[in-house]
Design a protein that fits this description.
single chain, about 425 residues, alpha/beta, 6-stranded parallel sheet, 5-stranded mixed barrel, 13 helices, about 35% helix, globular
């Protein structure tokens, strides 16, 4: 039987898709491209915004229209949030939420044998254990993702994710290390740790993030370990000092800000002030030399005035991020923010986003230019325009001569349109 998969949303969703596909391949299914004809189509959905819902449903309709006799299995966050609505869609054969994905083979086999529509969605219990899924290979040749935890306890007022992913559940350290070893054996050079809220790793079972990172740092063959998005509160000096002692950890910190205005942060139910956030970033810079600090910012959150937004602009400029992901606020039904007063017109949200993006581009260029004339290690990933392209440990995009899949030392000599260019100075 031929199976194809399509993922909407985040890297965690992509990991979940890869893990389910490995279970199907182990059961004898043959994977084909999503654009090819298949017996089964697996669609892993996202529900972080209304637009994500729309894209997920449109993909289901498109596949059913193109392949009306195929089994369509819909899973992921939208399935968890609206299982009945998804199950009622024409062409949907099975619905799986954000748990019980380990049963994907049995669910699809039941559909193929004519057992009728299957719905494997249930409410996630607060005492749920981490669902053990794993991958032995990476979707990328050089970089492998490992999911270390599931769920979130923060309940930010704009976010639906705790309602569809459940509370924090952490993966066992031994399991994480085993997966890292399998990825290294498959040729992966860089491990990226992902999850819904990785800063909370171990908080429910007595494990510690730094202890797990120490275990990973000792795995032979890993060239780099890159952390996913972090919450500010974890960036206390003792944690950072221990982290700095682990030589494989990339000096790249993605720390979600969301707003530089205290009143907006309070309405978002973010658990820090702008000044506290600034201190956490100062802690990083006191311990790491020239680290990359990237972030997320939402513009036009309910009640955000022009003065609030100007405060955010000034704060962002003061911090000096190396990159910013900017999102105009999008209402998400079922969250507290969706019912808040002071809605900002969408056009104004987008205008503010564009102003912030312009500022961010200047900061990114300023940060990147500091590395001109230096030799940096680059993990080359793909061939582009006669060069190999990849990223430094600070996630700076570089093009140079070389072979994808190798770690190369590169002398950086030119910066143009967001890309550094350089010359090889030898392999690691």
């Amino acid at each position: 039987m031929r199976v194809a998969a399509y993922t909407l949303g985040c890297k965690v969703n992509q990991y979940d898709t890869n893990a389910m596909m490995e279970l199907l391949l182990d059961a004898g299914f043959e994977q084909v491209s999503f654009e090819e004809e298949a017996d089964v189509y697996l669609i892993n959905t996202c529900t972080v915004t209304n637009m994500a819902d729309k894209k997920s449903r449109n993909m289901i309709r498109r596949i059913h229209s193109k392949h009306p006799r195929a089994v369509i299995c819909v899973c992921g966050c939208l399935s968890q949030r609206d299982s009945e609505g998804i199950a009622a869609m024409e062409g949907v054969s099975a619905v799986v939420g954000t748990e019980d994905r380990k049963n994907i083979v049995a669910v699809i086999d039941a559909c193929l044998s004519g057992g009728g529509k299957a719905c494997g969605v249930r409410e996630i219990d607060s005492g749920e254990a981490f669902e053990e899924l794993s991958v032995r290979t990476s979707g990328e040749l050089e970089r492998g993702y490992i999911k270390i935890q599931e769920g979130c306890n923060n309940f930010c007022s704009y976010c639906i994710i705790p309602y569809v992913r459940g509370r924090v559940r952490s993966r066992a350290r031994k399991s994480i290390v085993q997966e890292a070893c399998a990825l290294v054996k498959a040729g992966v050079k860089e491990i990226v740790l992902t999850g819904i809220h990785i800063s909370s790793y171990g908080q429910e079972n007595g494990e510690s993030l730094i202890g797990m990172l120490r275990d990973l740092n000792g795995v032979e063959g890993i060239g780099r370990i890159r952390l996913g998005s972090l919450e500010p509160h974890i960036l206390e000096k003792p944690f950072l000092e221990e982290l700095h002692g682990l030589e494989k950890i990339c000096p790249h910190f993605h720390v979600s800000l969301q707003s530089g205005c205290d009143s907006v942060l309070a309405r978002m139910n973010r658990k820090y002030s702008a000044e506290q956030f600034a201190q956490y970033i100062e802690n990083i810079r006191e311990i790491y030399q020239n680290p990359a600090v990237t972030t997320d910012v939402i513009t036009g959150f309910p009640g955000e005035t022009e003065e609030d937004f100007e405060e955010t602009l000034q704060f962002v400029e003061r911090i000096g991020f190396s990159r910013i992901h900017v999102f105009p606020y999008s209402e998400r039904e079922g969250t507290p923010a969706a019912g808040m007063d002071g809605s900002v017109p969408m056009q104004l949200r987008r205008e503010r986003a564009n102003r912030l993006i312009d500022l961010a581009k200047g900061m990114e260029k300023e940060y990147t230019a500091q590395f001109l004339g230096t030799v940096q290690e680059v993990l080359l990933e793909q061939n582009v325009d006669g060069c190999a392209e990849g990223y430094t440990d600070r996630y700076l995009r570089v093009r140079a001569q070389g072979v994808p899949g190798t770690l190369e030392k590169v002398l950086l000599s030119r910066y143009e349109d967001g890309i550094l260019y350089g010359e090889r100075r030898g392999s690691k």
